[in-house]
Amino acid sequence: MNDYGVVTEPGTVRLERVLPGPIERVWAYVTESDKRGKWLGAGEMDLRVGGRTELTFRNSDLSPNREPTPDRYKQHEGASFRGRVARCEPPRVLSYTWGEAWGEDSEVTFELTPRGANVLMVLTHRRLSGRDAMVSVASGWHTHVGILIDILNGQEPPGFWSTHARLEAEYLKRIPAQSATHE
């Protein structure tokens, strides 16, 4: 398993992680607003195909090690992203569109598979609009899922923005320009 997300096809990044289970616990952290708000973004999800999703991001609040939001991300701090559920098979698969309000049609899929006491999470984000989006999304998911792992392990997560900046610099090296659907 690669520590970093990988490009699986143009406009698609995939991240695999083993999380402490059981699968129902991980599913709850993916689908329940109060739990999801601790590592990604709070917001309601109508868990049926066609159901609406909403995520409100407060990345600076995801760690007790509060850090200022970088200028280029300030417009997203507290912003809500809306989408629709494309696939829902509790507790194994959840897929929904991302950024519906901005006319984007990217889609994120969580696939959960029990591995003994642990759970393999395969997170795939498809139809990303270009290399910049792929780098931002890959480093964002890497940071967010790292926070989820810390929470599930009862550990304090590091500051979001310093972790994100370090990972973004690494993904800039790892994601080639030709991996994007278009620039």
Descriptive report:
- The protein has 183 residues and is α+β, with helices and mostly antiparallel strands.
- The chain has one domain: START domain (Alpha-D-Glucose-1,6-Bisphosphate, Chain A, domain 4), CATH 3.30.530.
- The protein is built from four helices and seven strands; from the N terminus they run E-E-H-H-E-E-E-E-E-H-H.
- The protein has a seven-stranded antiparallel β-sheet, covered by helices on one side.
- The protein is globular and about 35 Å long.
- It starts with 5 loop residues before the first strand and ends in a 9-residue tail after the last helix.
- The mean pLDDT is 92.
> What's the pLDDT, averaged over the residues?
92
CATH homology-level superfamily: START domain
Counting DSSP E segments of at least 2 residues, the number of strands comes to 7
- List the secondary-structure elements in sequence, H or E: EEHHEEEEEHH
The CATH topology turns out to be Alpha-D-Glucose-1,6-Bisphosphate, Chain A, domain 4
- The rounded distance between the terminal residues' Cα atoms is 29 Å
**Count of discrete domains:** 1
At the first level of CATH, what is the class?
Alpha Beta
Low-confidence blocks of residues: none
Q: Name the overall outline.
A: globular
